[in-house]
Amino acid sequence: MSEPLLSELKSELLAISDLNSAAMVLEWDQSTYMPAAGADARGRQIALLGELAHARRTSPRMAELLRGLSSVADRDDLDGALVRRAHKQWERATCVPASLVSEIKSHSARSYVAWTKAKPSGDFAAVRPYLEKTVELSRRYADCFAGVDHVLDPLIDANDPGMTTATIRALFDSLRAQLVPIVQAIAERPAPDRDFLERAYPEAAQLAFGAEVARELGYDFERGRQDLTVHPFMIRFASDDIRITTRVDPNDLSDALFGTIHEAGHAMYEQGIARELEGTPLGEGVSAGVHESQSRLWENLVGRSRAFWARFLPIAKERFPEQLGDVDLDTFYRGINRVERSLVRTEADEVTYNLHVMLRFDLEAQLLEGTLKVADLPEAWDARMASDLGVRPPSPTQGCMQDVHWYCTTIGGTFQGYALGNVIAAQVFEAAREAMPDLDARLEKGDFGSLRGWLTENLYQHGARWEPGELVERATGKPIAIDAFVRHLHGKYGALYGISF
Amino acid sequence: MSEPLLSELKSELLAISDLNSAAMVLEWDQSTYMPAAGADARGRQIALLGELAHARRTSPRMAELLRGLSSVADRDDLDGALVRRAHKQWERATCVPASLVSEIKSHSARSYVAWTKAKPSGDFAAVRPYLEKTVELSRRYADCFAGVDHVLDPLIDANDPGMTTATIRALFDSLRAQLVPIVQAIAERPAPDRDFLERAYPEAAQLAFGAEVARELGYDFERGRQDLTVHPFMIRFASDDIRITTRVDPNDLSDALFGTIHEAGHAMYEQGIARELEGTPLGEGVSAGVHESQSRLWENLVGRSRAFWARFLPIAKERFPEQLGDVDLDTFYRGINRVERSLVRTEADEVTYNLHVMLRFDLEAQLLEGTLKVADLPEAWDARMASDLGVRPPSPTQGCMQDVHWYCTTIGGTFQGYALGNVIAAQVFEAAREAMPDLDARLEKGDFGSLRGWLTENLYQHGARWEPGELVERATGKPIAIDAFVRHLHGKYGALYGISF
């Protein structure tokens, strides 16, 4: 009875997915190869594809289809999940008035320009009025969604469905209580050497080595490729065309290498999604947090492990004999895991990273609540840095103006995913190790397929079938919690720094 | 009064142009960087964009707008030309039933597969039934257009507006009468050496040299770029993003070099179109013939001239000292202009090339008329090769199966542009030389801007404002004719081969 409607819905959703994929090809080209002069026309073309996708998503027929399929939405099968996710996307697309969307868009463009100009000198006064307006627009945007407990909730829900300000706060507060003493204890220990990472590493050799590592881990280059961009990213055009990009610092081996593993992690997640979900709302990573969990799992839990480098350091030494000839496994392992109380999130290590993220989450929640004024943001930021990390930014350039996020669109809902990712990664990795007690030995032998197979079986293939909370609980047997992550840090960094936590 | 309609029409045409440009970005990526596995989804995405553009072009509102603007179409200004061309495109898009379009599409896909399989062994029997069906579909396609004298006319009109079978036949018959004796006379003379072109030329150095030449000629890399593909092409995404592609034969300097100049010629034409025409039906090259005239003008009339190599041979010798150290200007100039009675169009020289093209034009006209049966095509082809060029293909692989054109879509309407291009190129170049009697001296000094400026002023900037016949007459003072081309061949090849024509 509902079959014709369902098949019409799927075909309409496929068209929307194809329009979005087409726009992404245009964006990929813009970031990789497009001559800069092409930007105006390209922006217009991308905007047109976005409008066409939006028009189809919010069409009267789409509303009819979803109404007609409301009984399917209650089903526990794939089609039920598909209709539910399509309905949610429809709701999000229809509940914000077009006038507000366009007001946000034009304000954001101005705000971004102001930020790029003011950031180098740390001139917060210059961006303040823009950020004040952004906070106001973000509140109005959030107000379009009915029945929420906290202004931040609908913004979080857009990227991490099923999560709320309350659940994330609870998670983050307990995590912070654990992290601050770990960082303090490590800060009192001597810092390991990492100078060998900062020798001259030719760009082409770095790219080739990164690709070699990504291939061995299981990123399928037959269904993807790697290009250079200013900011690395993963992008999906189709099941069989999922690309990564990399940036290379000729004087730091770790930037391109761990960046490549990170993006390959995102890509292996997408490459592992069941083919039957292609072109449906279920055929994509389910949330920012789960996506980041897979980039971080491969980057940190695999890529910064001793087992991994037991295998790869000899290969790295062959590729870079002059730069790494004098470095042994122990030195290398310590160097790539050095913990630092640094100012900049994107350069932070595995231990301090979440503190940077949680600071942002808390401050944006306060800005949106109105309990923190934009004018007071720099001081609130610096005070929190001092209390959590023991360092104070000398200027907003390295403080509350360092990230583009608050200056290029609405604020709220994006940062939590970075920290959730680390937490989920550890929980998933622990579950994988329980299933394969000899996991380290397998990694050391270069058997990455076992781990990838387990992840595909338990996480990747399901795409967006279940909300993140349910997906992680099905995969690990437990609700999302910080325990595994804290255990991981205590174990790894206790051993590395000779501290008993 | 018509202003609101006109502005609505322009905005609708801009959207259609943007959809087509988006599809072209997807096609470019498919030819350059896409992993092969991405082809299925990519095909679907490109088809969707094509359908959306077609739907907008044939929408009821488009018909209303064009009806409402019929008085503007009579105007002699830019808007008049714009409405006329939009109307013509609308007519072409609406007069062919969708069912026929889709029948042609699916037949063509099957035919193409059959051709790729049968070509290597020259198995004409295997492609014959496909070609017979193609001829039938091409006739039915042509029959959709009302009021034409010859079945080929609407097919020609699609690519070379204003031209007909009759006018092209008249032009080609007289040209053939001139060419056959030139080729015969040259065949009796000793063939110059070109072995030095077939030495080992490293790929990267060839690409760099080609780009250097293209840049000096005036192809603007700030508004374009060059990539590698199997078949070279030029592609336009916007006024400020017009790209070329190149293929490199590591054992033949001329393939990439003249291929690059050829595509750069196409691209300089597009880059020279007035910016105000961007996104309108006038903002593109006006016809296949005029487009090809500019690729051939730069490739042959400039790129194979003695003046050009007086400047570039010393540079080429610096880039390729081992390969070209022993080659003097005279030898080089003779080598790149060697005339050969060869079997394959794409490898043909400036003199014989048109004979290859005109043969195809005549045979496809006969196939469509029904005066030639598909079964008799191989013999008709071979006989004509023997009479025009004095050589007979040993197999259809080098005969009537050599080009993809007849096996991948409807037949008719594409080949004439290649020969028209050579004819128009010579006429335009002669006019430029009349305007600048010291043109050769300027080219020899590396002043290509004078020529490019004259071409931009007289041809490029006008885009598709006038039909090709009018455009060429405005630029050169004369209707399109073969005289200048014949004079060029007599002069150049008479001197090269010591023949007085």
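qc> Residues 3-32 of chain B form the longest helix (30 residues).
qc> done
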